Amino acid sequence: MTALLKVHQLHMSFQGREVVHAVSFSLQAGEKLALVGESGSGKTVTALSLLGLARGAWVRGEALFNGKDLFKFNEAQWLEVRGSDIAMVFQEPMTALNPLFTIGEQIAEVLLLKKGMDRQQAWARAIELLTDTGIPEPERRVNSYPHQLSGGQRQRAMIAMALAGEPKLLLADEPTTALDVSLRGQILDLLDSLQHKHGMAVLLITHDLNMVRRFADRVLVMENGYLVEHGDVSKVLSHPVHPYTRRLVDSQPERHVFEPQDDAPVCVQAQGLRVVYPVSRPGWRGWFGHAEFVALQGADFELRQGQTLGVIGESGSGKSSLALAALGLIPFQGRLHIEDRQWQGTAKSDLPLRRAVQVVFQDPFSSLSPRMTVEEVVGEGLLVHEAELTAAQRQSRVLAALNEVGMDETQFPGLLARYPHEFSGGQRQRLAIARALIVEPRILVLDEPTSALDISIQKQVLDLLQRLQRERGLSYLLITHDIDVIQAMAHHVLVLKDGVVVESGAIDRITHAPQSDYTRILLAGSLGAAQPGG
């Protein structure tokens, strides 16, 4: 059987540095193939080379598509194949879609150029494609701009645009990474049904092994630009041969948490916690005051010493508002006690609570100042909370905090004088944790602490957080949309939807016997996450 696509000895270099090394694979018509690897593995540039979009790359090798070598195409031939024979769905639709044109205009443009339709035909077909992708009210949404759609709707619109040219091959680059957990399963199911309907081949680029298990027929595993393993999904992921593949398979978060006593002291207690934001009223009504948007409505919860309370929900559910209220960074209504104290709203009176409650943010690259050295970043809190320390004492404390998170001068020569950009994502997150720990807090607010990290690095950071909790008796308020992380870390769970607590309880009860339909949707959307263990 002749392959639809056959890549042979693909080499790719940027400025003389080779990043893809002798990669060869084939893809049959109607097949679903997954290309798996972590950041920097070369999977995305490999896919971009198949559309001539790897700008600045020197490409050597062969990519036979229907018998024609793509790498020998001129620009006119690339324009002909893009969108009609090979189409791509990108990771972040908000940046891939043109904000100046409606969704309908962008889909119709493909139909006008690739299918020779007139405007009326193209518009009608755009509505049909939006209908196929499951967007509600397609006749109305076709006139919407990208910013007027939700994340899931934007991704569906991008899929509709990719399908407009009726491609034989669809390249899907991390098509669900930017979406909430419940939407991920929906998009995968959509791609699966559309693939069957149109008979197209799909090359799925991802780092998510649960997604691969659910969607693909075969899998290719890339590490540092090399293709290290390939084969049927069930065989490769159940019996991996290469050490890197084994490491990826073994990188699912594991539960190694200490179970605190039921009567452990309560560190954080909230009753009727409510957060509202002022919003402008449309038209002349805006002259006479603002309306209110209720981000969090009447939340009750408590967090005990040595315990992790996991707060889970989709974007817009109120998770971040709850975290900001717990940190005393936004106004709120209701009662919120932290170790029998309340936020007063003044720097001096809140200083003891600022020390007791620290935060680790989602993206360490944006939360760590690029202008400060490691010593300055990690030791900054000591200048506020222990100003009496000498420079030598501060440096000693910084080194101790760094050592506690697994970083020292032996491993990183000149560590204290380095800057955050000189470290990997996982190492930067360790710096962020060290910065929080150095003032010896008793409570950490963890705001999506691993969502920006590769799967193997995610496991390392979660293992670190679990160890620190066991050794220090820390309490964690864990904000996340990742069911796997909740199952590995949480003792109790708070499920939020549209600012309302729809369910709360112990982790085993929530994951094994959820009472809310919404919780069941979130669990189903985790794409096969493991159940919590002891």
Poorly predicted spans? 528-534
- Our Rg estimate from Cα atoms comes to 25 Å
Number of strands: 19
- Rounded mean pLDDT is 90
Quaternary state of the chains? single chain
Q: Please bin the fraction of helical residues.
A: 25-40%
Strands of the largest sheet, in order across it? Answer: 6-7-8-3-9-10
- Cα-to-Cα separation, first versus last residue: 50 Å
Largest sheet: 6 strands, mixed
Note the overall shape: globular
Structure class = alpha/beta
- Give the count of helical stretches: 21
Taken as a percent bin, the fraction of beta residues is 15-25%
Keywords, please?
alpha/beta, 534 residues, 21 helices, six-stranded mixed sheet, disordered C terminus
Can you put this structure into words, describing what you see?
The chain is an alpha/beta fold. The chain has a domain at 96-166. It contains 21 helices and 19 strands. It has helices spanning 43-49, 75-81, 93-96, 103-114, 119-132, 138-141, 151-163, 181-198, 209-215, 233-238, 243-249, 319-326, 347-356, 364-367, 374-385, 391-404, 425-437, 455-472, 483-489, 507-512, 517-524, and strands at 5-14, 17-27, 32-36, 57-65, 68-69, 86-89, 169-173, 201-206, 218-223, 226-232, 266-279, 291-304, 308-312, 333-338, 357-360, 443-447, 475-480, 492-497, 500-506. A six-stranded mixed β-sheet has the order 6-7-8-3-9-10, sandwiched between helices. A six-stranded mixed β-sheet has the order 15-16-17-13-18-19, sandwiched between helices. A four-stranded antiparallel β-sheet has the order 2-1-4-5, covered by helices on one side. Helix 15 (374-385) runs parallel beside helix 17 (425-437) and helix 17 (425-437) runs parallel beside helix 18. The longest helix is centred in the middle third of the chain and has 18 residues, at 181-198. It is globular. The chain starts with a strand and ends in a 10-residue tail after the last helix. Residues 528-534 have low confidence and may be disordered.
